[in-house]
Specification:
heterodimer; A: 111 residues; mainly beta; 4-stranded antiparallel beta sheet; 45% strand; globular; B: 113 residues; 7-stranded mixed beta sheet; 0% helix
């Protein structure tokens, strides 16, 4: 079973840059697109990155995504951190049967 | 505009049955897989299963096989998630998603048992 592993939590100060990783368990993470979702308390998840590195309309360019095939991982980078970025972040991709797979989520604290 | 609108919050007793809904609009409902995602309190996202409304082809995640039923009505562009006998452990937020890149999410339905 294909799985995505994320760190449980990360923290950084306002104005700094933080990177959240998402590591694939098997195969190549480059085989399917990776998406990233932000979930604030009490709200549904919303996409901040799709197709590895594309930003939906309205998402600031402080958010960026990348893929590293050498480590079989995807990364979400947020620069110029703001307190409003504090949320849970989930990566998502697909397995070999085109079935949705989620990472376990990373809690971002901006302190 | 693509929208998925879910039915309202539910408060049920253990053993009761329940069917929640997700109505799609702004796109061809029969052309995209619809999934149901569970989020238990303070926990992550779990895909329960998916359905292709065009032909009702359905796949369940192993953990949810036999525990819930997913269905869809093409005529009303609505997908459903149902339980025949709820347990306290079914207490969670349930989201429907349109399987595309990225996923498009409904607003969620809180089920409390």
């Amino acid at each position: 079973n294909f799985m995505l592993t994320q760190p449980h939590s990360v923290s950084e100060s306002p104005g700094k840059t933080v990177t959240v990783s998402c590591t694939g368990s098997s195969g190549s993470i480059a085989s399917n697109f990776v998406q990233w979702y932000q979930q604030r308390p009490g709200s549904a998840p919303t996409a901040v990155i799709y197709e590895n590195n594309e930003r939906p309309f309205g998402v600031p360019d402080r958010f960026s995504g990348s893929i590293d095939t050498s480590s079989n991982s995807a990364s979400l980078t947020i620069s110029g951190l703001k307190t409003e970025d504090e949320a849970d972040y989930y990566c998502q991709s697909f397995d070999s049967n085109n079935y949705v797979v989620f990472g376990g989520g990373t809690k971002l604290t901006v302190l | 505009e693509v929208q998925l609108v879910q039915s309202g919050a539910e408060l049920k007793e253990p053993g009761e049955s329940l069917k929640i809904s997700c109505k799609g609009s702004g796109y061809s409902f029969i052309s995209y897989w619809i999934g149901w995602v569970r989020q238990m309190p303070g926990r992550g996202l779990e895909l329960m299963g998916i359905i292709y409304p065009g032909d009702s082809d359905t796949t369940y995640s192993p953990s949810f096989q036999g525990q819930v039923t997913i269905s869809a009505d093409k005529s009303t562009s609505t997908a459903y998630l149902q339980w025949s006998s709820l347990k306290a452990s079914d207490t969670a937020m349930y989201y429907c998603v349109r399987q595309a890149s990225p996923l498009r999410w409904g607003q969620g339905t809180l089920v409390t048992v």
